[in-house]
Amino acid sequence: MDLIALAIPIFGAFIIIEGWYLKKQSAGIKPAFEEAVANVNVGIAERFFDICTTGLFHGLFVWLYENFALFTITSTWYWWIGLLLLTDLLWYWYHRLGHTVNIFWAAHVVHHQSDEFNFSVAARITVLQAGFRSIFWSFLPVLGFPPEMVTTILLVHGAYPFFTHTETIGNLGWLEHILVTPSHHRVHHSSNPCYLDKNYSDIFIIWDKLFGTFAKEGEKPVYGLTKPLNSHSFLWQHFHYFLEIALAWKRANNGREKIRILFGTPAMLDPVNRTILERRLLKRNQQFKASYFLKRYVVFQTLVSVLLVFILAGFHRHFNHLSFWFAGIALLVSLIISGAILEKKTWIFHLEAVRIVILAGWLFFIYNSFLVFLLLIGNCFLLIRFYGTLQEQYERLLFHKRK
Length: 403
Description:
This protein has 403 residues and is mostly helical. The protein has helices at residues 7-24, 33-68, 77-100, 102-108, 127-137, 139-143, 147-159, 182-188, 206-211, 234-251, 255-263, 272-281, 292-315, 321-342, 348-367, 370-385, 387-398, and strands at residues 288-290, 399-401.
């Protein structure tokens, strides 16, 4: 078993404990169900794609180290400290560019969409963001840090920020001068004008103080984007800003303006672009309201998805490629379905049918028996024969028509 997979239940336990604590405390704060599900779904997708790309990025580090290393750095305690500091410095500049360059912001914006701030928000990392980060990490093996050192320090560097995504921890005294604390990171996630583009550091707050982007928590933070997303759609959360860039690109008058759209700041994009795209692509269904069954179904589906990604993360070496991708595609379809249910989309049943076929095909591939083949054919026949009736019953369970 890959022990890194244990991070999934450990961090999941912290999310549940924090939610329980917030619900029980006297202020009566309770994380929104839809927000928590959307946050976890993004994290599940990132973990799956991370499984797929970790070997690729490690291979890149090895290739760079063996062919372009400028120095020979050994595994001594002072170089470990130096590597941690350098990794955090590179993160600072990656993170700062991720907020000030459109094409990088398109990958990072997902992390800032939630209008709440708790441990589940830490899960809102996309695979595209992980890919952009690896470009910056590539400087480390080129400098001469062995790939094994780089990979190890990245695990530590990736774990610490989880604990800065919370409102349950106040001021930490003298640590506020050295480390990134929840107070510092609350500022970073805020859309208050006085907090915008502040506190980019990940572990050590010294970089923000050194480069003039530090802000101390004062007025109460308001979380989320300056123009709230107001959607829990898995696909919309990931791709809305890329679509906004594409629309602005299409409307640009010349090549110079197109380049500025890609590499300029998010403030350059007209917010009306998203309004136009929402009218075209994000039609919300106001005809239905959620049923008693819906929430329980989404909870069940999310728990199964967490279990599946844990199995894939911990035991992926035991899967052959085809079986792994059968499971992975079924997982991604489930995440899309979960977000669409929260948006009350009536086309969900079509995706449910796709998922059933994928899972049936996966079972046939695993067992490769005539009995499973007959079950697969029977399943497809029943699905086609009673499709309309099944869809009607499915929607009746999930949604009620508003009176």
